[in-house]
Amino acid sequence: xxxxxxxxxxxxxxxxxxxxxxxxxxxxxxxxxxxxxxxxxxxxxxxxxxxxxxxxxxxxxxxxxxxxxxxxxxxxxxxxxxxxxxxxxxxxxxxxxxxxxx
Length: 102
Known about the structure:
The protein is an all-alpha fold. It contains five helices and no strands. It has helices at residues 2-21, 31-37, 40-54, 67-82, 85-101. Helix 4 runs antiparallel to helix 5.
């Protein structure tokens, strides 16, 4: 049953991507739908990281003792100032590791 679910999800994801990426198919989106889809990536990423950062222990944790929150703030500031993905990733991971070990 699990393998069937995995295969079904694989087929669904592949077909949904294929319909929009295959240039020979006559399927085209209007400009308003394309503009609306530009918000999907930030929305999905926010839905992934927000619970991890703000609720790592299954309840809201907004304090200076929260290593997830501190590392996320460091990552946001680094990304804003440096515009360097690799630097932001490495530094914020090191900050998080240091906070978790201490």
